[in-house]
Specification:
This is VPS50 protein. By secondary structure, the chain is mainly alpha-helical. About 70% of the residues lie in helices and about 0% in strands. It starts with 5 loop residues before the first helix and ends with a helix.
């Protein structure tokens, strides 16, 4: 047995948690269709994940917790709020933003708004190219 010093253990936990949270968002971004109930279940699952983490580690705050929660909650935004949100949240990949818009199509965003939102994403992505 090798004892890991607490500071090293905390760094390892932090990296593992951050990677898990980033993976969750990437998984949510791969969803093709999602209802309001589905998003509510995603929130519930994430809350369960956080509860288990809090029992496993003393790391507070949980790294990238807001990154996941913000992405899940963005589904409920109106067209105008989503456009502003897309411009303000550059921490998400183009793929993640695009899928968010596509999943919202039909539930509370129409095709015209979808095109406008996708154009906004493209405008943000353009300087990177």
């Amino acid at each position: 047995r090798v004892r890991i010093p607490l500071p090293v253990s905390n760094i390892l936990w932090e990296h593992c948690i951050r990677l898990a949270n980033r993976t969750l968002v990437e998984g949510y971004a791969n969803v093709k269709k999602c209802s309001n109930e589905g998003r509510a279940l995603m929130q519930l699952d994430f809350q369960q994940f956080l509860m288990k983490l809090e029992k496993l580690t003393d790391i507070r705050p949980i790294p990238d917790k807001e990154f996941v929660e913000t992405y899940i909650k963005a589904y409920y935004l109106t067209e105008n709020d989503m456009e502003r949100w897309i411009k303000e949240h550059r921490e998400y990949s183009t793929k993640q933003l695009t899928n968010l818009v596509n999943v919202c199509l039909g539930s509370h965003i129409n095709k015209k708004a979808r095109q406008r939102l996708l154009a906004a994403i493209d405008d943000i992505d353009r300087p990177k190219r």
